[in-house]
UniProtKB/TrEMBL annotation:
The keyword Protease applies. Residues 87-157 form the PDZ domain. The lineage of its organism: Eukaryota, Metazoa, Ecdysozoa, Arthropoda, Crustacea. Gene3D superfamilies: 2.30.42.10. This is Tail-specific protease. SMART domains: PDZ. One of its GO terms (biological process) is signal transduction.
Amino acid sequence: EPYFKSQKEYENHWKKMLKSSILSLEDYEELTYKESIDRMKNRMGIRKKLLEKKTTDDIYSYFVNSFLKEYDPHTSYLSAKEIADFNISMKLQLSGIGAVLTGEKGFIKVIKITSNGPAAKGKELQPEDKIIAVATDGKEFEDIMDWPLGEAINLIRGKKGTTVKLRVIPSGSKTA
């Protein structure tokens, strides 16, 4: 039996979910109603863009893992991309900017700069800075506001020697 009995019930559910999210933004982030709607539109646009990037392998992996978790929560299927990511992490073939990051209120926030990493050597990135866009190897800047942390980190890291440029809101700035 479907979760929703009709298309109208489905649409009403999503209207309530969006309204709740907008009200939460107003309350917790102290945004105006218009700012909250704009933030939600931006988030939905980013989610749509991220969903459009999903491949059939990604969808297959989600499906198989959902099925496997029902029978054994300790078993999982790894797609070719996930195996490659796992192997990279085990062999340490990719390196990052040398910073510990977290997601906070739609921003990717720098928690700590690791010693001897590229960020420490550059001395431009500081704890509490908010990364809002990333450009790698001469490509255009890509806005990462409201991105999931893992997706943003995947964009930032690369093989050693990769050029990474960041657009940052400095800590203490009144902008955000």
